[in-house]
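Appendix B.2, paired examples.
Example (i):
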Amino acid sequence: MIKTKSNETKPNESANALARQALDKIKEIDRNAQVEKDRQAQILNEAKAAIQKRIGELEAQESEIDEALAAITGRQPASAKAPRRKRTDLSEARARVVRWMQNHKGTRYSAAQLLQEFPELAENDVKISLFLKLPLEAGELEKQGNRANMTYAAV
């Protein structure tokens, strides 16, 4: 039998069509998985917000009970704790500090200099070594020196 071009191209075309169908199916599965992940993330964020709200309510009730006990007994109850500080999300400040340091590449800054440059960090009693831990681990910044003379710079 003599082979013709039409006989040779049909297997390739069908293989391409199968591959295209497989890739389309994979993309559809990926889209569905991303939609499900987004839905789950939204549910978890809503649950977290509800829990944080409830924690605030419970802490307020606890402080009211402690005040009532103090009024009855005349002294602060043993369970009374110092009021909790409000948690501050410093991720935006961290990103701003890293951007600022990257714009000043080659310059090394001590923790005191960074606190002076970014007063909101000093207001929140931020420990610079902990504050910069994530960018250091990600390789965006580097540190040099010993504990007393630590300096930070953009890579």
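Example (ii):
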Amino acid sequence: MRFGLFATIFSIILLANALLISAQADNSTISGNSTIVLKTIEVDAKLSKEKFSPGDKIRITGTAKIGDNEDINGLVKIKIDDYYSTAIKDGHFSLEVTLSDLIKSGDHILSIEVKDSEGNTGSVKNHFYVLPMPKRVEVYLNNNSFSPGGTIEASAIVRDQNSEPIDTATIMTVYDSRGAEVAKVVVHDEKFVLDLPSDALPGDWWIYAYSDSLKARRFFEVYEEQEIETYVNGSNLFIKNTGNVPYRKPITITFWDKGDSDVKSVNLNIAVGAEAKIELSGFGKYKLDVASGDAQNHFEGVSLTGGVVGAQLYGDVSQLVTGVVVFVSAVVAFALALRIRKKGLKAE
């Protein structure tokens, strides 16, 4: 009798397992002595358009049905960036969502999940595109300060509502410290390279970037540099200002003759790009050491005449021009003062 009872319990367990496996395979639910078969809901959804701008309203409408039955009531969950939900009534649903002003541009997936009052479910996915909206332009430089003759590498990046770069044209213009236009180019995502001249004006330069209605300006500094080049031609020593500011340093010339030396010093004031000439004198052939600031040079076998070792500045255009300007300014100031004085006497 115990064996028969055991066999009966075992048979019941096997039957229950078989029913459970069958229910799971058929997407069914067992409740008491009855089986509820869950069905798949067919979901169809449409968007108000395919492309949107940040901040736009996106309207989603759709239907949900099982076979030919459209009278489905339940809940629909829609995910764009966050979850939104609305009710399904008689197989129809509609929802309007406002896109974030900072939503990423590009392709987006819209997921829709539907569940009716009987537990049936369905889902569908849709796509929409968000247009990039240019919000700002940024200027990048390889350095914040440059020496004359240095190389500037600049780029401009236009960023959208989510700070992502946009491939669009940008006009870049370089201005010197006096506001004069030096260079102008149109770039996309490539670098703009500019080699500064050796006499580039010192001071604050800037790059102006323009893309549509977006503008940006980036300043950088060009250093002051006093640089010279020296060479000998015949009995003359030439000094050329290759820097970007007037050269106002003394130059020392050492004359070597059979181990003996004689040193001469000349004060210089050479305008940018100008050249000064020093007439050398002596008797015979000399070795010359020329030094001024960081510049040093050595010359062999310089033949000189005149009998006495010497160095005389021949021409300094900057000094001459400065003298003329000072003289003219003084004359104008004197004439203006005299005229004012005369007018004052007449008024009395």
